[in-house]
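Hi R.,

As promised on Friday, here is the backbone we talked about, encoded as structure tokens. Could you run it through your design pipeline when you get a chance and send me back a sequence?
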């Protein structure tokens, strides 16, 4: 039976060969530059896809929450890093997980550090997150007082081990000067390494965002890279130049429920609860919530004439249709939608369907 015969409602499809090619490309790049690849699993959130990653030499992984880390525990990872400023209310759960799984957390202030010193019963590593210009979270690169206070407090405990510095230059998503931002990030981490390496000879530095890691070929003396979105890619990444549309390995299959040929619009069952509401806006101010592809037995093809979701509500999606799409589509057909932001789409859908008809796990679906 074709995978298409299983679909009666919005379904997130995954193309395994493209996904594997994306993982392999980044793993090969890391190896070529002598860096360890520790992917951020906030995009895939899947044990099965994690097993694919291990086939390309990936041994450590990053989670965005302790819930996700718990889901990934017991899967053979050498270490799971929780790349979110640690929430001290979750210390009891961290202790339970650390009994049988190597874990590390992210610290950004002395208060949380002290709470871990007081509350940990099992060994846990930690990175200090650094802010070198993004402005979302982390200790500012010039705030040595806070860095050293965190280190002094952590040294009071034999359960809390300093691993190094973590930097996420997320502003690469908002500027064309990715090379400039990465140069700043490299310089920031190099400076910290030189300052603290004599005291902590085993410290490592990690940088991670998909746009930068996809286009950068000079990582300097950064030890580890930790992108996440590269596993699937999406239209936003294609817009940023991280990939081509042919590299996008997930798409949302949606049923066609109505067609208005006068307005050149197609109504599909697929809205914000399936895709989230990330949007791209073109030079003329048109909103794009996802682009149409044609589904077939082997996956999907990208049409020459672009059709796109012009608006979405909770369950509804309205496609601005090209003439060629209107000629071939009918009510009851299935169309594919390439997502703007694959991480959020996958989180909404909480499960994947492979092209051979197999369901693949997602953390939110368990």
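Update: got your reply. Pasting your designed sequence below so it's all in one thread:
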């Amino acid at each position: 039976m074709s995978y298409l015969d299983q679909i009666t409602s919005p379904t997130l499809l995954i193309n395994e060969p493209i996904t594997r090619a994306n993982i392999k490309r980044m793993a090969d790049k890391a190896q070529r530059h002598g860096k360890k690849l520790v992917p951020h699993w906030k995009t895939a959130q899947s044990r099965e896809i994690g097993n694919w990653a291990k086939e390309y030499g990936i041994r450590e992984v990053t989670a965005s929450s302790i819930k996700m880390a718990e889901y990934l525990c017991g899967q053979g990872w050498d270490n799971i890093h929780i790349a979110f400023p640690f929430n001290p209310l979750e210390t009891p759960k961290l202790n339970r997980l650390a009994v049988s799984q190597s874990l590390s957390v992210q610290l950004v202030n002395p208060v949380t550090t002290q709470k871990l010193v007081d509350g940990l019963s099992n060994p846990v590593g930690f990175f200090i997150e650094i802010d070198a210009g993004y402005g979302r979270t982390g200790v500012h690169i010039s705030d040595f007082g806070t860095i050293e206070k965190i280190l002094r407090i952590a040294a009071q405990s034999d359960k809390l081990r300093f691993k190094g510095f973590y930097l996420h230059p997320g502003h690469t998503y908002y500027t064309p000067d990715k090379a400039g931002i990465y140069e700043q990030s490299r310089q920031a981490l190099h400076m910290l390494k030189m300052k603290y390496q004599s005291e902590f000879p085993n410290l490592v530095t990690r940088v991670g965002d998909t746009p930068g890691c996809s286009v950068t070929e000079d990582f300097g003396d950064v030890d580890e890279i930790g992108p996440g979105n590269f596993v699937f890619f999406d239209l936003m990444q294609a817009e940023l130049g991280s990939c081509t549309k042919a590299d996008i390995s997930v798409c949302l299959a949606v049923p066609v429920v109505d067609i208005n040929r006068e307005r050149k619009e197609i109504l599909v069952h697929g809205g914000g609860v399936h895709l989230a509401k990330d949007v791209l806006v073109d030079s003329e101010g048109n909103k794009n919530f996802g682009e149409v592809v044609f589904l077939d037995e082997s996956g999907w093809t990208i049409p020459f004439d672009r059709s796109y979701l012009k608006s979405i509500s909770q369950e509804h999606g309205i496609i601005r249709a090209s003439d060629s799409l209107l000629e071939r589509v009918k009510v009851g057909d299935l169309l594919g939608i390439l997502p703007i932001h694959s991480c959020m789409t996958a989180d909404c859908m909480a499960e994947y369907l492979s092209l051979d008809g197999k369901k693949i796990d997602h953390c939110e679906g368990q």
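One thing I noticed while checking it: Residues 178-196 form the longest helix (19 residues).

Thanks again,
M.
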